Amino acid sequence: MSVFEDSSAGVPHPHKLKDVDLFGPGAEELWYDAYAILHREAPVHHLPGEGLTPETDAFILSRYEDINRVVKDPIRYTPITSLMLEQMAAARTPPENMDYINMMMVSMLTLRPTVELWRAHRKELTDPWVGPGAERHRGMITRRVDALIDNLPGAGAVDFVQAFARPLPQQVMAEVLGFPESDIPQLAAWGKAQVMPFVYGEGHLNRLTDEQLASQFTQLDGFKEYVQDIVRSKRQSPADDMISFLTQVTYSALNRKLTDLEINGIVYAMVLGGLETTQYALEQQAQLICDRPGLFQALQADPALLRTFIEESLRLRAPTQGLSTRLTSQDEQFGEVDVPKGSVLHLRWAAANVDPEEFECPMDLQLDRKAASRHLSFSAGPRVCPGAGISRLEQQIAWTRLLERLQSMRYGSDNTFLHQPGIMLGTLQLNLELVKAA
Ligand code: HEM
Fold it and tell me: Which protein residues touch ligand 1 with a CB less than 6 Å away?
């Protein structure tokens, strides 16, 4: 059965491999149908001439085992960003003279050019704030969640995305970083510009046209200067937030403090990764609950089930469905398929998560699934998502409080359930009928 019963976008259902196009217009309505075909007929799916250059190829990997192997070995399967960093370093052009290079890439050049430094970067710079250390934000996130629930009507219709799923990660990341409350709308606009390639980018490489790229950088105008001002002021008078921390910390891997521009790059990465991903997770979780009679009540009756619910929902509805982020550094074989050196690997996390070889009854949401967190929605290995900790915490607190403070939740009217284009799985609107508990 299809997860998305019918493609209301008018895109024909894929039946055979030749119908499968994960990146065409409307493809996002039928992705899970396509994954079943890929698993059956082409778990290593060849895209001739679609590598980084026209004479090289790309391959879509959809098996759990293959993707898990790739992400755990960054030497054999080079992250494409590492290659770009090598090229940037070799060009010896000062980053400020490079066209369309964002601050995140610039800071990677000095802070994490190797696997060892990548690990140190996570451990020393991001883990204390958005990784395992995110626990320090529990009180703040709970206050934010409660304030959003306070603003919901006592009973009636609400767009869950607008009223809850979108503002929560925006507010949380602004407070974690140390941005003033009044700047959240501007921050959200910059976040939107940053994710443009993942929404409008073409093909598996999410390529923007020159025009789109120029427009993205125009929309991002001012972001760097804005962050520079905040960094400078926090260096003078640090507060209890991530940017202040980054101005004071000694990065022991390099035995020095961070420059203003390096901090700017880390902030860029936090805004890019931290907003829409968690929004889509929350929105899809609401759909999973509305789709399954009795699930809301079961979770209310036993909140200990929430942990598995969240992992299962991340598995079944991976917010980031797939990314072309690795390159083979030698000739490889995946199953029967030869993959030449220099090929791009598109890692389809969402398909790996419903691989029947790895997950029994893969399309079922099972609240008693063993080791449910082994899904690949946050990837794995040395490049695993650094923000998984804070995202999971936001989801955990959001559903704990929603289940405590709502009496019921069901679909409202006028939902199209159409997904936004691009590589993320999510709808931009979700009308719900909510009744608050007395
Ligand atoms: C449900 C929410 C999220 C999902 C599904 C998600 C997923 C991912 C995935 C699949 C990757 C690629 C890893 C690889 O190439 O192996 C990634 C990387 C990344 N994520 Fe997340 N992410 C989420 C939330 C967040 C949050 C909340 C933040 C920031 C606070 C964040 C920051 C990043 C960054 C900066 C990277 C790039 C890797 C790096 O610079 O170290 N993500 N994420």
Answer: 71, 130, 269-270, 273-274, 277-278, 281, 319-320, 323, 325, 349, 377-379, 383, 385-387, 390-391
